[in-house]
Amino acid sequence: MADVAKDTPEPGRTLIRNIGRLLTGDLDAPLADSDCLLIEDGVIVGFEEADADRVIDAAGCAVAPGLIDGHCHPVFGDWTPRQNQVGWIEMNVNGAVTSFISAGEVHLPGRPKDAEGVKALAMVAQRCFANFRSAGAKVIAGAPVPELDFDRDFYVGIKEAGIRHIGEIGLGTVAKGPDAARVTGWCRELGIETIMHTGGPSIAGSHHVTAADVIEAQPDVVSHINGGPTSIPHEEVRELCRHATGALEAVHNGNEKSALVALEGAIAEGRLADFLIGTDAPAGSGVQPNGMLRMATLLASFGGLPAEQAWCCGTGNVAKRRGLDQGIVAAGRPADLVFMDRPMGSDGDDVLGGMAVGNIPGIAAVMIDGKMRTGRSRSTPPSARVPVL
Description:
Helices cover 28% and strands 19% of the residues. The protein contains 11 helices and 19 strands. The strands form 6 sheets. Strands 5-4-1-6 form a 4-stranded mixed beta sheet, with no helix packed on it. The relative contact order is 0.17. The mean pLDDT is 96.
């Protein structure tokens, strides 16, 4: 008899009760007035107590949508050649990340740069991660990096192959405004999402991309507006907040001061809903299992953003701008959830208070598609409370 696939949603009904704070991930209403959550076959169906096959007592923990790392660089499996490290995805799940979006599989040794090879690599990465989910994580991979000799037919071909977004413009030979604008124009016409490197070169072979280049190209996502890792000048960051039409993404592997400048600029322009966070890991600074938690906490402490809104920048904002179902706690959405509390010894009455004073949450458990994937985290400080299963 064949084994049951381990990544299918949890069957039946699950009731989560005794929730201390329920974060929705939706910037329009980031906190829900409910202490219960009902899940059926891995999907959220309601916010009231009802008969269920299993009950989870949250024991006063906060429950929130799992974080979406909107900018990472996977290769194959749970291994990164950038740091020659195994298990980085699983450790990020322990850091409350339930979904990842590839910005290009650029760290593969000997990565092909011809049109056929680039398309093949994207297709293989996409299909491999559809079949392989370390700790249940959802990795949206297959992000081909544009090169100057790719014509419109290349983008038609990747669209027909089911590729939904390209890798960072600027990591290949397409980098400057006119060339980038030609690519974003083709992709916009074809319905392919575009993202664009911003700042100094990340590694040898990538390019310096200025605010003027980004504004000329107008990608769907301004990747690491705070540098990856070297930032553009702060006035250029503000210029992008004023004139770039795409989402404004800040990453852990960037300039933290520039991230706060970008947050201030987004708020000043009434664009907080466009502000996204990611990690840009694996990178020269390493693998960062708590990188998304650190970014949200940075916004909530030094940035002065209410912690429940900071959480939206890594969940619902990403979901809305990048067309994902997960990332928002609402009926009909996947039950990709984290149980969390202030870490032991932290100031603050609860996890939100702890974040406000600069302490990352203690992750007590992680659920993906209604199925428990971790208990108390192996990467965060211990949470003050833990759910009872």
